[in-house]
Design a protein that fits this description.
Blueprint (H helix, E strand, L loop, with lengths): L13 H11 L3 E3 L6 E3 L1 H20 L3 E2 L5 E3 H4 L3 H7 L5 E5 L2 E9 L4 H11 L8 E10 L13 E11 L2 H21 L6 E4 L11 E8 L5 E11 L1 H5 L3 E3 L5 E3 L1 E8 L1 H10 L16 E5 L7 H16 L4 E3 L7 H11 L3 E5 L1 H6 L1 E6 L10 E4 H29 L1 E2 L5 H9 L4 E6 L3 H11 L2 E6 L21 E6 L3
Helix pairs in contact: 2-6
The chain binds one RNA strand through helix 1, strand 11, strand 14, helix 10 and helix 11.
RNA sequence: CGGGACGUGGCGCAGUCCGGUAGCGCACUGCAAUGGGGUUGCAGGGGUCGCCGGUUCGAAUCCGGCCGUCCCGACCA
C-alpha cells in the first residue's frame, strides 16, 4: 500500500500533521462508533511493547494483575461525591439487558475505583490482609465530546493500579513509587522526559486527596498529561466500608492509591519524536527495529536474498527485532519511504555492490548530529555493533527531547504580563511562584490559555524559589509550572 | 454541548450555484521490462455520490432530518 502524498508539515499545521501521521503510519483508524478508534497492528504492536515493559515494572514493585467487571452499578459511582461529580457527565450507561429494563442501570466503567474497593472491602479483615497491590489492564469509556485518535477517545485502553494500605505514609509512598515507575518508563523506554509533580487542587482527580502527574512537552510546545498517580486517602474506603483491624485491635479505614497510563502514551510518542516524514520510534518500543531491504537485480537475485536471510538470522539471534522487505513489486525507494513513515529506527540495504564488498548499508531513521545519512559498514562489524547502534539511537532521541523541553522552558517569570509574553513567544513550560489561590489559575487561563500542570518535584524546581505569586501581590507558597495542555 | 466547515471508488480531489443516467490523479489487479530514494509500458477491476425522507418525469446537484469527521469554545487521561 504505497502512498505518495507528503504529510502536512508540523510547522504549518501540527494538528493536521498528527492526524495524517496516525492514519498514514497505520497506527489507528476511525471506527463506525463515534469517538472510538481501531488500533491497527502497527499501533497495537507499540502498545504491546509498552504493556510488556510496564507490566514487568509493576511486578518488580510487588503488584499482581487481576480483572474486574466492565459494568459498574450506578449506585457505586454515586457513592463518592467528588467522584460522581467528576465523571457523571461523561458516563455511558446500560439501562437494558436481556430485552428488559434493568432494575438498576450499569455504568460502563470510566475508571474502576468504586467496584474495586467494594471488593477489597470483602477481602480485608485485618492489617495482616494489607497491603493489597493490584493492577488491571482494561478498556474504559468516557463519553468525550471532542475526540482525537489516541489523545482522547471515547473508549481507550489503559492499566489502572489500585492499592490499599494500613497507613497513610505507606499509601503516599506507593503513590510516589508508581509516579517514579512512570517517569522511568517515559524516559528510558519512550525517550519522552516528563516534568513530574503535584497537581493543583483544581486539576486533582475526582475523589483523590492528591494527584501526582507526569507532564511531557510535545513538539508544538503543548503539554500532555501522560500519567497520573493518586493518593486517595480514605475517601473511597469510607464509602465502601473498606475497614481493617489494626495490630492494636481497633478498626480503621484503609488508605488507597490509584495510578494509570493509557494508549494516550502512543499519541505522546508520535508528538514527541515524529517528523515531517512520519513516525519515529524509540528502538525499545519499535515492533520492528530494523528493516532489511534487499536490492534486487533481474538477472540473479539469489545471492542477495541469501545474504539478506543470513543477516536477518544473525541480527535476530542478537535479539534485534528485524524484518525483511522482499516485496518484488515495489522499488527500493518506495520501501524506504514506507518504513520511514512507520518510524522503523534503522534500515539496512543489501545489494550486489555490498555483497561484493562484504558490507551493509545502514541508514538510521533520524540522522545523528555528527553522523551521516547512510553508512557502509563491514558485515561482521555491523552485526556486532547493531544492538549498540540501537541504544545510541534511543539515547539520541531522549537527548533531543530533553533539549527541546529545556529550551522551551522559561524560568524566573514574576508577573502576569511576563507570563502572557512568554506564551506569546511560544514558551512550553513556564515556571512561576503561586500563592495557592484558584482565582490566579482562572485569570491565567483566561489570559494565556495555560493551566498549572504541576507543582514540580524538587529536582525540577528553579534554583531560587520564587518569592512572590505570579499575580504580583501575595507571597508564593510554591513554584508551579504553567503550560497549554492537551 | 454551542459556533463554523466538510462528507463523491482505498487516498486526494473536480462536478453541486444553473437537476438530465459519475469523472480525474494516485493506489489496486494482470502481463512484460525495470530495480542503490516514491520505475515504466500495455491491458483491466472497482463508486446506487455519508444515511433516511421529501420535491421532481428525472436528484451527487434542490429542501428537511439524522450520522460522522475536522477546526474554535466549554469539558476532559
Amino acid at each position: 500500500m504505497t502512498d505518495h502524498k507528503k504529510l502536512t508539515p508540523r510547522a504549518e499545521d501540527f494538528s493536521s500533521w498528527y492526524n495524517e501521521l496516525v492514519q498514514r503510519a497505520e497506527l489507528a483508524d476511525h471506527s463506525p462508533v463515534r469517538g472510538s478508534m481501531v488500533i491497527r497492528p502497527w499501533g497495537y504492536g507499540i502498545w504491546e511493547r509498552m504493556q510488556r515493559q510496564l507490566d514487568d515494572m509493576f511486578k518488580e514493585t510487588g503488584h499482581e494483575n487481576a480483572y474486574f467487571p466492565l459494568l459498574i452499578p450506578m449506585s457505586f459511582i454515586e457513592r463518592e461525591k467528588e467522584h460522581v461529580e467528576g465523571f457523571a457527565p461523561e458516563l455511558a450507561v446500560v439501562t437494558q439487558a436481556g430485552g428488559k429494563e434493568l432494575e438498576e442501570p450499569y455504568a460502563i466503567r470510566p475508571t474502576s475505583e468504586t467496584i474495586i474497593y467494594s471488593m477489597y472491602a470483602k477481602w480485608v479483615q485485618s492489617y495482616r490482609d494489607l497491603p493489597i497491590l493490584l493492577n488491571q489492564w482494561a478498556n474504559v469509556m468516557r463519553w468525550e465530546l471532542r475526540t482525537r485518535l489516541f489523545l482522547r477517545t471515547s473508549e481507550f485502553l489503559w492499566q489502572e493500579g489500585h492499592t490499599a494500605h494500613a497507613t497513610p505514609e505507606e499509601a503516599e509512598e506507593e503513590t510516589l513509587t508508581m509516579l517514579g515507575v512512570y517517569r522511568t518508563f517515559m524516559e528510558d523506554w519512550m525517550a519522552m522526559p516528563p516534568v513530574t509533580g503535584l497537581k493543583s487542587p483544581t486539576e486533582t482527580f475526582a475523589g483523590a486527596v492528591r494527584t501526582y502527574a507526569c507532564e511531557a512537552l510535545m513538539q508544538d510546545n503543548k503539554a500532555l498529561q501522560a500519567g497520573t498517580s493518586h493518593f486517595l486517602g480514605q475517601n473511597f474506603s469510607k464509602q465502601f466500608d473498606l475497614r481493617f483491624q489494626t495490630e492494636a485491635g481497633h478498626e480503621e479505614y484503609a488508605w488507597n492509591t490509584s495510578w494509570g497510563v493509557s494508549t494516550r502514551l502512543i499519541g505522546g510518542l508520535v508528538m514527541t519524536h515524529g517528523d515531517d516524514e512520519g513516525l519515529v520510534l524509540p528502538p525499545r518500543l519499535a515492533p520492528v527495529q530494523a528493516v532489511i531491504v534487499p536490492i534486487l537485480r533481474g538477472d540473479d537475485e539469489s545471492p542477495v536474498l541469501e545474504k539478506t536471510e543470513e543477516v536477518r538470522k544473525r541480527l535476530s539471534d542478537a535479539d534485534v527485532r528485524v524484518k525483511v522487505d522482499a516485496r518484488e513489486h515495489l522499488s527500493p525507494g518506495a520501501k524506504y519511504y514506507e518504513w520511514e513513515r512507520k518510524g522503523v529506527p534503522y534500515r539496512i540495504e543489501i545489494g550486489p555492490k555490498d555483497l561484493a564488498k562484504g558490507q551493509l548499508a545502514l541508514a538510521p531513521r533520524v540522522v545523528p548530529e555528527d553522523g551521516k545519512r547512510k553508512a557502509f559498514v563491514p558485515e561482521n562489524e555491523a552485526v556486532a555493533e547493531f544492538p549498540n547502534l540501537l541504544e545510541t539511537f534511543q539515547a539520541e532521541l531522549l537527548g533531543r527531547a530533553a533539549a527541546r523541553r529545556d529550551a522551551a522552558s522559561v524560568r524566573g517569570v514574576t508577573s502576569l504580563d511576563e507570563l502572557e509574553e512568554a506564551f506569546e513567544q511560544g514558551a512550553g513550560f513556564v515556571y512561576t511562584g503561586w500563592c495557592g489561590d484558584p482565582e490566579v489559575e482562572e485569570t491565567v487561563k483566561e489570559r494565556t490559555g495555560a493551566t498549572i500542570r504541576v507543582l514540580p518535584d524538587e529536582e525540577f524546581r528553579s534554583e531560587r524559589a520564587p518569592e512572590k505569586c505570579v499575580s504580583g501581590e501575595r507571597a508564593a507558597t510554591s513554584e508551579v509550572v504553567w503550560a497549554r495542555a492537551y
